[in-house]
Design a protein that fits this description.
It is an enzyme of class 3 (hydrolase). The chain is 22% helix and 30% strand. By secondary structure, it is α+β, with helices and mostly antiparallel strands.
């Protein structure tokens, strides 16, 4: 009998058809949640419909409860931050992978091309830590809080463990329609195009519609706000806590407007219409979500440009962030370095590998046991490798490669093999030695 949460599909590396498409695809989420007085607790109902894209019948789905990543299954006195109950449309098992994965057996096998839905009650308690799913003073961050479908592809079900210092996430482009009922004193930035309507006494309902995004995130608190429109027509909405340094807010807003247009020209026009910048002084670094980024902001600003670049590299062009973190982090950092014309960013001629086992294409399973190497390799060596590829191909060819690759994988999934193939197609020079030198395997 399989352990609770163990995938029933083929294990990674099993002999399966490489062309097996990722499924369940074309997910559509409908969510209605109500907040308590300060946005620490949210409860309501969530429905997700989906299609089976696989040639084989789909007998189950897995829901990822990423918000439980830090706390696991909790205790009797302190339950998990994300709780699912009253499931309809399938039979739930016991949560597995430290309560970050819930198997739901479907009532009958779903044939290829068929569509069905499951629904469930969801209760969220924002943890008392400053984190992507956490809080800072009166401000609440709900990143990776909403349950989302796991992906099944040629490697089987992706039920990777949560990592706190990187990302484990792998999702397909989805549609979200979300209704957030909250006290009117709270401003609620969220993924997607948002608008508000009056709710009950002293309450407001924030509505959001997001098309072809990989996740849905929001924040809540007594934010100060400002909105401006970039020259290319993207609405940039800024939210910041009153104690955020004013100079940093101004700089982040300026960089946000400039970066969203510049990357739109380099990679393809930003497709979502608006983006929210959420700023506080104590958040560590930055965190990206479709249409929303959270930024720790000092007088010198924050990681705005890097997080904006993630709107393409992870957002529009998806990837398996647990198994191939370089495909979003190194690409976003390469874009960031180019934006600043490599000011303050140095590349070593020999890449300065920290160990014999370090490789740019290592997974988070490796980095979990080599944490000291992670940022040096993925954020440091990675963009330098892409800069070296630019030198090999020529600046113009590299620019065409990146834009074409984004176009060809728009709302799709990037892989290391796919990028290597795309790069090779741009030159008659054999790039095999280049990949080996830079440990791209």
């Amino acid at each position: 009998m399989a352990e609770a949460g163990t995938p029933s599909g083929p294990a990674p590396g099993a002999a399966v058809r490489a062309a097996e498409p990722a499924t369940p695809d074309r997910p559509s989420y409908d969510v209605k949640l109500r907040a308590d007085a300060d946005g620490s607790h949210w409860a309501g109902r969530q429905t997700v419909s989906f299609r089976n894209a696989s040639s084989r019948p789909l007998r189950e789905v897995y829901i990822r409860l990423w918000g439980n990543g830090e706390d696991g299954c909790g205790t009797s006195g302190r339950p998990s931050p994300v709780r699912v109950s009253h499931v309809r449309g399938g039979t739930p098992g016991r949560p597995g992978v430290k309560c970050t994965a819930l198997r739901i057996a479907l009532p009958r096998p779903l044939a290829r091309g068929e569509r069905t839905a499951v629904s469930f009650d969801v209760a969220l308690t924002v943890p008392a830590r400053n984190n992507r799913f956490g809080r800072e003073g009166a401000f609440r961050f709900l990143g990776n809080a909403l349950p989302v479908l796991a992906v099944h592809d040629a490697r089987g079900w992706h039920l990777d463990p949560y990592v706190s210092y990187g990302e484990s996430f792998y999702t397909l482009a989805s549609d979200f329609r979300v209704r957030l009922d909250h006290p009117s004193a709270l401003k609620v930035p969220a993924t997607g195009s948002t608008w508000t309507r009056p709710g009950g006494t002293g309450r407001t309902v924030t509505h959001s519609v997001a098309k072809r995004v990989r996740d849905f995130a929001w924040a809540a608190g007594p934010f100060r706000t400002a909105t401006q429109t970039s020259p290319d027509g993207v609405r940039v909405k800024s939210y910041w806590s009153p104690n955020t340094p004013a100079a940093g807010v101004r700089l982040n807003r300026k960089d946000g407007v400039a970066a969203i247009d510049r990357f739109g020209r380099e990679f393809g026009r930003y497709p979502y219409g608006e983006i929210d910048l959420v700023m506080t002084p104590g958040f560590a670094g930055g965190m990206e979500y479709p249409g929303l980024v959270i930024l720790g902001t000092e007088e010198e600003g924050g990681a705005t440009v890097h997080e904006i670049a993630h709107q393409w590299w992870y957002g529009v062009v998806g990837n398996d962030e647990y198994n191939s973190p370089w495909l979003d982090e190194s690409f976003a950092q390469y874009a960031n370095a180019r934006y600043y014309r490599w000011d303050g960013f140095e590349c070593s001629p020999d890449d300065s590998w920290p160990s014999a086992t370090a490789a740019l294409t290592n997974s988070m399973a490796y980095w979990s046991t080599h944490r000291g190497e992670y940022f040096q390799v993925v954020y440091g060596i990675g963009p330098c490798v892409l800069a070296d590829l630019e030198h090999v191909l020529g600046a113009g060819t590299m620019a065409r490669l990146i834009k074409k690759y984004a176009h060809d994988h728009w709302y799709g999934v990037s892989t290391t093999a796919g990028f290597k193939k795309a790069a090779q197609s741009m030159t008659h020079r054999d790039l095999g030695p280049f990949w080996r030198k830079h440990r791209i395997r």
